[in-house]
Amino acid sequence: MFDDKPAPGAGRTMAEILAARLSRRDVLAGVASAAALAAMGPARELGAATTGGLTFKEIAHGADETVHVPEGYRSDVLMRWGDPVLGDAPAFEPRALTAAAQAKQFGYNNDFLAFMPLPLGSANSTHGLLVVNHEYTVPQLMFAGLQGGEWDYQARQTKAQVDVELEAHGLSVIEIKKSKGQWRALPGGTYARRISMTTEIAVSGPAAGHARLKTSADPSARRVLGTLNNCAGGVTPWGTILTAEENFDMYFAGKAASEADRKRLDRYGFGGKQRYAFANHHARFDLSKEPNEANRFGWMVEFDPYDPKSVPVKRTALGRFKHEGAGVTLAPDGRAVLYMGDDQQFQYLYRFVTAKPYDPKNRAANRDLLDSGTLSVARFEDNGVLQWLPLVWGQGPLTAANGFESEADILIDTRHAATLVGATPMDRPEDVDVNPVNGRIYAIFTSNSNRKIEHENAARRPDPANPRGPNPFGHILELMAPGGPTSAEHAAPAFRWDIFILAGDPRVADVGARYHPQVSANGWFGAPDNCAFDPRGRIWIATDQGNNWTRTGTGDGIWACEVQGAERALTKFFARMPLGAECCGPCFTPDGKTLFVAVQHPAADGVGLLDFENPVTRWPDFKADMPVRPSVIAVTKKDGGLIGD
Ligand code: FEO
Ligand code: CA
Questions:
Q1: Is the pTM of this model over 0.85?
Q2: Ligand 1 atom closest to Cα of 322?
Q3: E strand or H helix that includes residue 28
Q4: In what order do the strands lie in the sheet with 300-303?
Q5: Could you give the CA distance from residue 413 to residue 393 in angstroms, rounded to a whole number?
Q6: Residue 530 Cα to ligand 2 middle (Å)
Q7: Tens of pLDDT, residues 158-202
Q8: Nearest listed ligand to the Cα of residue 136
Q9: Given CB 3.0 to 4.6 Å as the disulfide criterion, which of 62, 106, 140, 465 pairs with 610?
Q10: What is the pLDDT of residues 414-447, one digit of tens each?
Q11: Phi, psi angles (nearest 5°) of residue 317
């Protein structure tokens, strides 16, 4: 949701950087041999070929009030902000919102989506649970009377409004069913659930109980009220959901009393403009009163959607940063491996490997698997090697001399630890997901307006893994673990990496874009963010340009392409969002016949003044008495076939 300011491409010097990368490709091809590469063994084979390509007729760049999908496809609105989730939810009354009603209704700004088949463990593609993150709120579009100056509406917000916002965050779990080709939601029932900023969440792992997590409301440091700014997420092999707390800093106001606390909070972006009115009405969001409350957010949260009574858990072993999401897979020995991005300019890419293997025969045995293991951070070497640097207390600089008294300190101040061990600062790491067909990992970097060729800090200049400075359009890297597609050694200490796509308009030389050479005038995109893989292993890329869509001339959407073969990186435009919306959470049913998409913050980005009374679109209802509503859509093929074929 951050806006990166656009900037022209970097021309000549960028060409030099790309030239360096190309020589590295020669190294990978065996022209020269680096010791590190040799140690990794032979290059792995790709998985089985996919298909003859994507056959849909791509849609056009542009921007208007509604959703577009290709001919032969349909998109149906499945859940809207305010729709009932719990069985006793009241009807949506947009001019009379209450926290009590919102606590039972679908929240705001849907982001991550997971389709969890019913029953658990099946591949049912017509009946399951839809799990949805509600990342943040846009008060000016939710409540009447808040339009006006950029941030001054906060001072006018009532406690009743803030309490609605607390309930509009978090997650929804709702049963959905497809019959006669049409999806519908079934509110209530066994699994329906809302998780919000008033839900009790447990804390586990090495930082649970730590002094820096204690507050006046929770001296145990093991019970937090709520989960916040849940952006993307992941699904574990044991059928639980991971939900990522991303921009947690923006809900807090005030200044911590101690210089040490302020310094640590600065590392996470605290201290900027107040963006929410939470602290005006709830003391726990005021850093001058509860400085430790901020340490209780920025975690990855796990919960079991199949057990509506289960207590969600903040898994501190996974580190504290602006978690974007988690790509989860298994190493050949059964240990679970999570790939995670920290979405801010010049932040890092992480990997977590569990200490114990996943037990496929005993679901309960995996309950606390994510509480112990090794968190590592990525260093991208110029020679195409990716080193995973472990963040282990007592090793290298991670000692008391640098302020780390225990592993818990490393996990609370993960960014600081990652910097000390020499991680590579990246261009806003967003989704990092594992392609189930070729076993490769796709890491998405959305943009970075502040990477500069002449930056005074050498770590903030372009490098082979972030080759453009500034980088307004983002890029996608392909990471390759040693081993074959079905036996990739995801826990190995070193991988190989390469560039998959450099986004932006390939017709403008200064942009320095790179796709398949035949990409069409509609096939290029900017600011990739989330992705999904269909059953054939093709990648579906969702974008979040922020305000910059006004410069690219197209709304956000989904672009799809093959990852191998003759049409590798030949991206085609598949779905376009309404004005001001970001496209999130692409998620397929196991049969690949439905693609769920989250349409987040329609009428918000790049549209000028935000006004409840006069939004630039009233999607999806288009009724004068209904506000614009973030919603989830289900995209299907009219002939019932596979999406993309
Ligand atoms: Fe919430 Fe990084 O997007
Ligand atoms: Ca995102």
A1: yes
A2: 2
A3: helix 11-28
A4: 223-225, 200-204, 313-315, 300-303, 241-245, 230-235
A5: 12
A6: 6
A7: 999 999 999 999 999 999 999 999 999 999 999 999 999 999 999
A8: 1
A9: 140
A10: 999 999 999 999 999 999 999 999 999 999 999 9
A11: -65, -20
